[in-house]
Design a protein that fits this description.
Elements (H helix, E strand, L loop, with lengths): L22 H7 L9 E3 L6 E5 L2 E7 L3 E5 L12 E13 L4 E14 L5 E2 L1 E5 L2 E6 L9 E9 L2 E4 L1 E4 L2 E3 L2 E3 L6 E3 L2 E5 L10 E8 L4 E9 L7
Parallel strand pairs: 2-7, 12-18
Antiparallel strand pairs: 1-4, 2-3, 3-5, 4-5, 5-6, 8-9, 9-10, 10-11, 10-14, 12-13, 15-16, 16-17, 17-18
């Protein structure tokens, strides 16, 4: 309010206008800067390994990696867990010493309780093998995983085919790993908002097309996978 002499004064009791922050800005303002620093790593140490009868799948860093602590506990991990980010190649190292690049990641983030290599989960389909690779070990709802097949001395990434659309990854419940039942891949989902029961997905592998095609989706009503 302007005084008679031309100066201004504040009227007691007048409320300041409310300032609305976007979620992104609020998150930036409230960051804990103790954990903003990161360490650069230059190492040939693999980040994940899958042992096949025909060789070895290896997630190898292409360049340097960035290593940080999470900084706060959440459903994604504990306060002192590691966030490891970098560019990687998935290599298949055959028993005869040759190798192939199976897949490349220009940027991939791993969430781990330590810096030891991740053990890929082996799935056997008769004489063929597949390996599930999960970049994170915990999540609020579902864990994303990649699936790599090994057949006749060659390794390749599987695509998940749902309603005619191919996906590079799928999600599994943090409490249950993908399984092979009757030659098919069975995956149980985690619980997301609005869900009363988890879902069970059954995929039929097509080794020639290199796809896992969804053939059945059903609610899980306290019935374990056979």
């Amino acid at each position: 309010m302007r005084r008679k002499d031309g100066s201004f004064c504040t009227v007691m009791g007048t409320r300041r206008p409310r300032i609305l922050l976007s979620p992104e800005l609020a998150s930036w303002i409230n960051r804990d800067y103790r954990f903003e620093s990161f360490k650069l790593l230059r190492t040939a140490k693999p980040r994940a390994v899958g042992a096949s009868e025909q060789g070895e799948l290896v997630l190898a860093p292409r360049l340097e990696e960035r290593l940080q602590r999470l900084g706060a506990p959440s459903c994604l991990g504990k306060e002192y867990d590691y966030r490891i980010t970098g560019a990687y190649d998935v290599l298949f190292k055959r028993a005869d010493g040759t190798e192939q690049i199976v897949r490349s990641f220009d940027e991939l983030t791993l969430i781990r309780p330590d810096t030891e290599p991740i053990s890929m989960d082996k799935l056997t389909f008769g004489s063929y093998e597949a390996f599930a690779f999960m970049p994170a070990y915990a999540d609020c709802h579902g864990l994303e995983f990649y699936l790599f097949g090994v057949r006749d001395g060659e390794a390749f990434p599987f695509a998940f085919r749902l309603d005619g659309t191919d996906r590079d990854t799928f999600e599994t419940s943090p409490g249950r790993k993908p399984q092979v039942v009757g030659g098919k891949l069975v995956v149980e989902s985690g619980m997301a908002a609005g869900m009363n029961t988890p879902l069970r997905y059954t995929f039929q592998p097509d080794w020639n097309a290199r796809t896992m095609e969804l053939i059945r989706k059903e609610e899980v009503r306290s019935q374990p996978v056979p």
